[in-house]
Write a structure and sequence with these properties.
binds manganese (II) ion, alpha+beta, binds 2'-deoxycytidine-5'-triphosphate, about 325 residues, 11 strands, binds magnesium ion
Amino acid sequence: SAKRKAPTNNVNAEFCDFLIELADYEKNVNRQMHKFSAYRKAANVLAKHPQRITSGAQAKKLEGIGEKIAQKIEEFINTGSLKKLNKIRADDTTVAINELTRVTGIGPAAARKFFDKGIKSIEDLRKQQILLNHHQQIGLRYVDDFEKRIPRKMVTEFEAIIKKNIHSVDTAYTVEVCGSYRRGAESSGDIDFLLSHPSYTSDKKIGNKASLLHQVVKKLENAHVITDTISIGNTKFMGVCRLPDNDNPDNIHRRIDIRLDIEIYLCGLLYFTGSDLFNKRMRQTAIEKGFTLNEYCIRPIGTTGVHGEAIPITCEEDIFDIIQMEYVEPHKRNF
Ligand code: DCP
Ligand code: MG
Ligand code: MN
C-alpha cells in the first residue's frame, strides 16, 4: 500500500507525518490495530487543526490526543526528532517489512511470512518469484510505477478514453470515476471506476451479469488500455491500465479498479467515493440510527434484529437523510 503523507497546506504536517509513520509501524510490524487507530486519529485531528501546535500540553487539549502522544509531540518540538522513531527506522524487521509491503498484494501478514523464510527485500522477492501468487507477481513487476501518484489531469485523460471505449461497446453504461478523484484530490493512488447498466439493476435482472463486466474489460484490453488483470469476477475487476501513448515517459502503469454495481447504484457510489474512514464513520452512524448501510443498500434493522427491505434511494442526499446525518459533499469526505 502507498505511503500516506499529510497534505502540504497542513501547518501540523510534521507531526502528522511522524504519527502516520508510527501508525503504519503498529499496523504492519506489530499488528497492534488499536495503537494504529490511536495514531491515525491523532494525525487526523492535527491535520484539521488550523494553528500550528507549539507544545505537548496544547496538543493534549485536542480530542483524540492522550498523554503518550502529547509527550511525543513535546519531544519532537524540543529535539526535532523522536527516539522511538529512530529506533524503529533502524530495526531490521521494520525495514524488511516496510520494503516487502511496498508490493501490492503483499500485506503485513504475507510480508512476515516471507521475512521468516529469509526474504527481506524486493531484490530477494525477484529471485523467489515462484513463491508469489498472481497478484503479488503483478505488484512486484510494477512496484515502482504503482508508487507514483496519478495527477488529476491524467485521471481525467483515463476517464475520457475509458468512457469512449465502454460506450463503443454499449452507450447504456453509466461510467463514473469515484475514489479520491471524486473527492477532488489533486492526485490519486489508483483509478476507481463505477459502472452500471440498465439491464441489471435491483428490480430488473435481464442481462447476463457476468458478460457486462467481462465485455468491457475485453474491449479495454483490445484498446491496450488495460494491460494486466489481477482478478475479475462478475462485479469486480482489479488490474493494471496505461494510456496508449507509449512514447510519453509519464505514461506508466497504473492500478485500476472497476466495479459493476448491481444493487442500488447510489449506495455503490457512496461507498466507492469513500474515504474508507468516512465510510466507517457513516456506517457507525447508520447503526446508531437503526440502519445497516453497505455498498449494496441501506436497510432498517428491525427490533428483532432482522433486516428490513432495502430502502429506495433517489440521490446520495437521501442516504444521509435516512440516518439523520447532515449531507457531506464528496470534496469533504476525507475523514
Ligand atoms: N473502500 C472502503 N474500505 C476499504 C477499501 C475501499 O470503504 N477497505 C472504499 C472507499 C474508498 C474507495 O473504496 O475511497 C476506493 O478505494 P481506494 O483504495 O482506491 O482509495 P481512494 O480512492 O480513496 O484513495 P487512493 O487515491 O489512495 O486510491
Ligand atoms: Mg482509489
Ligand atoms: Mn481503488
